[in-house]
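Predict the 3D structure for this chain.
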Amino acid sequence: MSASRRNMALTTLLKTALTLSVFCTISCHRTEIVDGYPDQYVGVGMELTIENHMPVVVRTLDGGAAQAVGVEPGDQVVQIDHKGTRDLTLGNAIMMLRGSPGSQVTLTLTRRDQELVIVVPRRSMIKGPQDYRAAN
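Done. Predicted structure below.
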């Protein structure tokens, strides 16, 4: 199987399995990524990756609750609702952050060797042309 066919197959598989995780070649752009996502979801408004077996914040989304309460890129997510996150898959971490609009999730974060406990309300996030933003 050629590299491009393999990349296409993996991209399709991941878009189907996890709506907020991304397999991306060097040439992809955020607009292409967002096209395959649902029109709306309820969560805290942050993008995660897995580093050293732990979820880490890549960025917060404009208008999202995570941004409003001070979550920062590079924050390591140690617990979600008092449950350890070590060795969680990206998909499982994302699903733990989802819930009903207005419900809250407690995040235990490590930032520059300090532990922070932050309560984050879940909000509806809607898809725009290039990214998600908080629904009004």
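The first helix runs from residue 3 to 17.
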